[in-house]
Amino acid sequence: MTAMLNVKDLRAYYGQVQALHGLSFSLNEGSLTTLLGANGAGKTTTLRAICNMVRSTGAIEFEGKPIGTRSTENVVRLGIAHVPQGRGTFTNMTVEENLQLGAISRSDKGAIGSDIERMYEHFPVLKQRYTQQAGTLSGGEQQMLAVARALMLRPRLMLLDEPSFGLAPLIVRDLFRILGKINREEKVTILVVEQNAQLALELADQAYVIETGRIVMSGNAKDIANNEDVRKSYLGY
Amino acid sequence: MELFANQVLAGIATGAIYACMALAVVMIYQAIDHLNFAQGEMAMFSTFVSWQLMQWGVPYWGAFVLTVAFSFVAGIIIERLLFKPLAKAPILTNVAGFIALYAIINSVAGLIWDFTIKQYPTPFGSSPFLGSQLISTHQAGMIGITLLMLLLLFFFFRFTRVGLAMRAAASLPESARLVGINTSWMIALGWGMASAIGSIAGMMIAPVVFLEPNMMLGVLIYGFAAAVLGGLSSPFGAVMGGFLVGIFENLVGTYIPGVGNELKLPIALALIIVVLVVKPAGLFGRAIVKRV
């Protein structure tokens, strides 16, 4: 299998502070990978570095092309959708406008309407609320909307930053089930950053564990979930 | 009663101009979070350009269209050259930039066209509108042009993809980039449009205040008052604010003894202060509702 995303020796900085210390990892096409770690380990920074939203050095290749120097919007236009922490919902616009915005960089305008319908099938709750201001949705609904908005790009790769954050356990299960379905049915490669390690390991097939900006463990998600030492020392359950 | 109706209609006519200026100010404010103090001077310069074109024999509406196009491009160029490099600079640096732009445009206009007052033509004539003594055809034309422009802008922002992208870039730049919007160019586009709207305001008001390099100073202050009154976060509010300030100014000037023409401007400034104290978000400003 070929690697879709290849990250080598990634170092990222916030001002003088170095947040990542030479991260290397790769994602296989069609895989669902999770990046685990405690608060402040550098999970969010890793995703932000891929989209060039933080100053970084190192090599990032997407489908064989180096993307490290591209602007955020040009990385996105390659088919990398990023669901940021806090969801980035356009709260003063309607649900439907949020979905339209997800597809704003696409040139095949004709297919956007049917894609919106497809999103309503994945997330029926959005259909009931399509004229409503997105800011009035509940946290779970906003997270569904954020995922749907990202899918409107027809991405090849989707990056999700703590999708479970602040959601009730039942809603998290529902969301993860949909993510698995999207990964299988729509062949979207997914990288999900999580603090909820248990659930993320159930969903993913590959996992990386990072601590203070370094990868300390990688491998098959099941193996990591079954390794008691790893669970105790890094994942805390 | 006749006097009252007359003053209200005249207020709506000048209010239309304030509405244009307020709208231009709000568009740039939404994009970069700063008030463009040079908005009026940009409009004045555009008006001079249209006057020059007419001096060269271009018919009114030809000059009008060319000027709007010129202003659009000039607005984009100003943003690219001056304010894009200042995007991450502190607020005072930006204020200095706006004041510099104000002074430069004002002096250059004076240099090219000197400071003597010039007549500026109206395409609508100045006879009584529809035979009534209430407003002139020029005032009616001003209202008509403004409303038409507002309608076009509404459709642009509501129903086109570029309009949607501009709104997204103004409200949440980071999220906008994450859906692939080039926010930097959206800001430039906002400047171009604001500059074009300002040029229309300038060409409409010039027959009333006459053409000279300082013609837009008062108008811009009314425009600021209108934008603050309506709410800097709301283009619709800015437009309503424009009409309200126009009517308010005329009624105060007519009915409160001793105010007259001289004190109209201070009253607009007092209005800004009162609104900021009582309702900081403006009449139509959105109190942002957030759920986390």
In brief:
Chain A: Residues 5-237 form the ABC transporter domain. The complex is a heterodimer of chains A (237) and B (292). Chain A is of the alpha/beta class and 237 residues long.
Mean pLDDT value of chain B: 89
The N- to C-terminal Cα distance of chain B equals 54 Å
Taking the alpha carbons of the first and last residues of chain A, their distance comes to 32 Å
- Percent in strands of chain B: under 5%
Please indicate the percent range of residues of chain A in DSSP E strands (runs of 2 or more). Answer: 25-35%
Level of helix content of chain B? over 70%
Structural class of chain A: alpha/beta
Radius of gyration of chain B: 19 Å
Total domain units of chain A: 1
State the CATH superfamily name of chain A: P-loop containing nucleotide triphosphate hydrolases
| Spatial arrangement of strands, main beta sheet of chain A | 6-7-8-3-9-10
* Low-pLDDT residue spans of chain B: none
**Second rung of CATH, namely the architecture of chain A:** 3-Layer(aba) Sandwich
Q: Assign an overall shape of chain B.
A: globular
Shape of chain A, please?
globular
GO biological process, one term (chain A): L-amino acid transport
Protein name (chain A): Amino acid/amide ABC transporter ATP-binding protein 2 (HAAT family)
Family (chain A): Belongs to the ABC transporter superfamily.
Function (chain A): Involved in beta-(1-->2)glucan export. Transmembrane domains (TMD) form a pore in the inner membrane and the ATP-binding domain (NBD) is responsible for energy generation.
Could you walk me through the main structural features you see in this protein, from its secondary elements to its overall organization?
The complex is a heterodimer of chains A (237) and B (292). In chain A, helix 3 packs parallel to helix 6. Chain A is built from 10 helices and 10 strands. In chain A, 38% of the residues lie in helices and 28% in strands. In chain A, the strands form 2 sheets. Chain A has a 6-stranded mixed β-sheet, sandwiched between helices. Chain A has helices at residues 43-50, 72-77, 95-102, 112-122, 124-128, 139-151, 169-185, 197-203, 221-226, 228-235, and strands at 3-14, 17-28, 32-36, 55-62, 65-66, 80-83, 157-161, 189-194, 206-211, 214-220. The model of chain A has no long low-confidence stretch (mean pLDDT 90). With 237 residues, chain A is α/β, with parallel strands linked by helices. By secondary structure, chain B is an all-alpha fold. In chain B, 73% of the residues lie in helices and 0% in strands. In chain B, helix 2 packs antiparallel against helix 3 and helix 5 runs antiparallel to helix 8 (183-209). The interface between A and B is medium-sized, with 32 and 23 residues. Chain A: Involved in beta-(1-->2)glucan export. Transmembrane domains (TMD) form a pore in the inner membrane and the ATP-binding domain (NBD) is responsible for energy generation. Chain A: Keywords: Amino-acid transport, ATP-binding, Nucleotide-binding, Transport. Chain A: Belongs to the ABC transporter superfamily. Chain A: This is Amino acid/amide ABC transporter ATP-binding protein 2 (HAAT family). Chain A: One of its GO terms (molecular function) is branched-chain amino acid transmembrane transporter activity.
